[in-house]
Amino acid sequence: MVRLTLRRRTILFGALIALIIAYCSLALVTSRWLAPERFDLTTDGLYTLSPGTRQIIDSAHRPLWLTLYFSQHATKDLPQLRSYEQRVAEMLQEMVARSHGHIRLQIVDPVPYSDDEASAEGNGLTPMSGGSNGERIFFGLVGSTRPSNSDVTSDVNADTPDDKSSKRVDRTLAIPFFDLLRETFLEYDIAKLLYQLNEPEKPRIGLIANLPVMGDPLQGTAPWAMMQQLQQLFDVETLDASKLKKIDKRIQVLLLIHPKNLSNDAQYALDQYVLGGGHLVVFVDPFAESDPTSLSQDALAGTNNHSSNLPRLFADWGVAYNPDQIVLDRGRALQIELAGTNLAHPAMLGLGTQELNRDDVVTASLQRVNVSTTGHFDLLPNASTRLVPLMQSSADAEVVPTQRVIDASNNPSTLLQGYQPQNQNYVIAARLRGPFVSAFPEWARRPGHLAESPANAEVILVADTDLLTDRLWVETQNFLGQPLLSAFANNGDFINNLVDSLSGSSTLLSIRGRSSSQRSFTRVDALRHAADRKFLQKKQELESELADTKLRLSELQPVKGDRDTSTNAEQKQEIEQFLRRQLAISKELRDVQHQLNAEIDALGTRLKVINIVVLPLLITIIGLLYGWRRTRRNRRQRA
Amino acid sequence: MSPTMAVMRRELRSYFVTPVAYVFLVIFLVLVGILTFYAGDFYDRNIADLQPFFVMHPWLYLILVPAVSMRMWAEEAKSGTLELLQTLPLTLWQSMLGKFLAAWLFVGLALLLTFPIWITVNYLGSPDNGIIVAGYIGSWLMAGAFLAIGACLSTLTSSQVVAFILTAVVCVLLILVGQAEVIDFFQGALPRKLVNAVAHLSMLRHYEAIARGVLDVRDIIYFVLTIAAWLTAGVLVLDLKRNH
Q: What is the pLDDT of residue A1?
């Protein structure tokens, strides 16, 4: 019997040890190697990567190292930023989980004066000021095709993926700072970074321009700032429109600037490029101020020779564009200096956040784009395409003949005479979405002819070329003999975003904005706004009272030379009264502010009481009642 | 009614017969409220989510769960009812599961009673209720894992205090191994693979993964495995004691 018990005990001990081993191994195996199967319970599917991002991650053909820099200590008092950091980190972790070990992530807190801080700055991260104790806040992402030194020692996710890319050029790219305002495009921005890291070469951009955008080496003029920027990021290839017969498919984006009298061959090449899935951006203008040809009027045609158009293709795509019309917008008129005086030019417009599409990745984060003598687009009645505006005029705009604007160049204020706003937002730049069919059906027999486009084909239209010129967005300053560009509008960012998003890939373009995960207490916000309004109202009332007192005071000022002492006494009394009232008013304002904040605090206190006291109190009462009844029952039973 | 369910009902009723259950509930609710509003800065941070609430749960369970589980077997051993229980037509597994389910339901009730905070956050703004649901699921699963540990450890001793302390120590270790600071601390001293492997066993890591709003099958498997393993270990220990 004893032997039997001993044997059973040995078996039980063995089972216990086997259980521990089995548990550890199973927990590890399932955690690390089981394919992720997830159910995203968030309302907007925050953690479900869009198909575009998944495709980009799956097609990563070399290992990538990501480093998220976030200043933990400096953001101690910034809950919104900390919460956003969590969202960014989770999005990155989701991508890492999807990558099957191809992407490695490291999260670093760059404390002041540390190597991490130096490496964050060295990799192009932009710190923000305003952290606790005046520390700088780093919150950016660095992506690289090779591991950083610190990765080798502290990468949480272990194994170094085998690097088959030693022959490839290593690249390091960064998102300088995760802006809360761009949260809707968080997934897009990170996916773009991954995409660019994976690309072995700079994207190729084609350029057909009828304006001197690349400068003139003979005359010693430099390329426009816009082009200099593009050349840094992309491989820009200039194409000759007069000899154009076919556009190379390897050109990812084609910029067509100021097209004038293009040959049929060139138009056919453009048509086939678009139908083949190429990304075309067309800049036309009713009046291109930088057109180098001397201004002459073609009386017969009634047009000026500084205008551009793409009539055949526009008609085929269902686009209405009239180069004889310019959009005036007195609500968005830019101030210019003419002959020493400042005046608002209704044909030169500063388009702000209201006029830029906040839902499009290209324009979402821009603050202002300046345009000049711009045209506008519309759809023809029978169009099968869709026009998604990127930039529009305000509703306080009207359309006038181009000639009228040219004539008013010496006195633009005459354009405001008889101004009649149409209460319409004119489309200045837009995405034109297909389906497109060939504008050259008669050339259908040509080898390789495409009759229609894929479903997701898109052309971008901009009705102004002046926005590309330096004078509308950038100032060049001389800094230690070097030209230093300082931008005063986002025109450069607009073109960069445009080319960037189009050169990415159609998968990248498919990643659209998401809703924001940051939700504030709307009720508290409403209280705060109401309080602010009340405070402002009260302040205005009190200020006007003070102004009245001041006025009375100035009325009592002695007239020059008047030596009447009685007036002086009255004046003195009034001054004293004024000072007393001023003190009383500032106290009153402080009280008002205090009282209004008190409403918000009172709500907080009520909620604290409900959550901390009410239910526990209720449970205590129920417990006591139950205990009392039980004791009474027991006593009765015993009796 | 199956024997497991009968044990569960008896245990559940026993919680409410004494003032213990009410005291537990009141302490839990008061603590959760204070920690959420004061330590978590729930109101002043002005963000409509329950992150400050859920982030406190692992630490709160360190007090509540061992207090619930300590009596499971230790009390039976001390009062001598363990032998009596073993004579009943019940397998050890059925008793263990019945007691565990009763405790898990009791903690679930405590969790449900935190509903005013959910109403509060919906009153103040428009939170993502999907994330909140996931938070509750994750929290309940974590409580289940802690309870299973407590159930197992209370079979080792007849002293409730010892059972409480043992459970709290094991649970705190399982929370700590997931903390970034602890991982960093051991990175230099231990082989990286080992540190990473242990980090995968961390309760906190799996809880946080669910609480952000995503139910990952791997996290659920981890909790189910943990509960099953500790309950099995408890049954084996009881069996060992029986054969002593």
A: 52
Q: Which of A95, A452, A495 is nearest to A272 (CA)?
A: A452
Residue environment code for A468-504, b if the CB has 16+ CB neighbours within 10 A, otherwise e: bbbebbbeeeeeeeeeeeeeebbbbbbbbbbbbbbbb
Question: Which chain A residue lies closest to B32 (C-alpha atoms)?
Answer: A612
Around A207, how many Cα atoms within 13 Å sit in the side-chain half-sphere? 18
Q: Tokens 């003032």 — which residue? A: B19
How far apart are the two ends of chain A, measured CA to CA in Å? 52
CA nearest neighbour of A168 among A239, A31, A319, A64: A64
State which H helix or E strand residue A237 sits in.
strand A235-238
Do A477 and A483 touch, CB atoms closer than 8 A? yes
Say how far apart CA A25 and CA A328 lie, in whole Å.
Answer: 72
pLDDT at A82: 83
CA-to-CA separations, A407 to A220, A287, A402, A472, B124, in angstroms, rounded: 32, 12, 9, 21, 59
What is the Cα–Cα distance from A305 to A313, expressed in whole angstroms? 20
CB contact under 8 A, B19 and A156: no
Calculate how close chain B gets to A266, using CA atoms only, in Å.
Answer: 53
Beta bridge partners of A173: A143
A window 616-635, beta carbon within 8 A of B: 616, 619-620, 622-623, 626-627, 630
Q: What is the pLDDT of residue A510?
A: 64
How large is the ipTM? 0.87
Q: What single DSSP character describes residue A261?
A: S
Give the span between the Cα atoms of A271 and A252, in whole angstroms: 15
> Rounded to an integer, what distance in angstroms lies between the CA atom of residue A322 and that of residue A325?
6
- Tell me the C-alpha distance between A503 and A515, whole Å: 25
For residues A287 and A304, the answer to whether their CB atoms sit within 8 Å is: yes
Tokens 């004046």 label which residue?
Answer: A571
Question: pLDDT band at residue B1, thresholds of 50, 70 and 90?
Answer: low
Encoded amino acid at A269, one letter: A
- Judged by CB atoms closer than 8 Å, whether chains meet at A622 and B22 is answered as yes
Q: Which of A20, A43, A630 sits opposite B128 (nearest CB)?
A: A43
More confident residue, A108 or A513: A108
Which 3-state string (H, E, C) describes A493-531? HHHHHHHHHHHHCHHHHCCCCCCCCCCECHHHHHHHHHH
Chain A residues whose beta carbon lies within 8 Å of the beta carbon of residue B126: 519, 522
Closest CA to A523 of B37, B220, B122, B224: B122
Q: What is the pLDDT of residue A342?
A: 74
Tens digit of each residue's pLDDT (9 = 90 or more) over A413-435: 888 888 888 889 999 999 999 88
Inter-chain contacts counted by CB atoms under 8 A, chains A and B: 188
Sign of the dihedral defined by the CA atoms of residues B232, B237, B242, B244, in that order: positive
Q: Check residues B165 and A362 and name the one with the higher pLDDT.
A: B165
Give tens-digit pLDDT for A136-172. 899 999 999 887 654 443 333 333 344 444 445 678 8
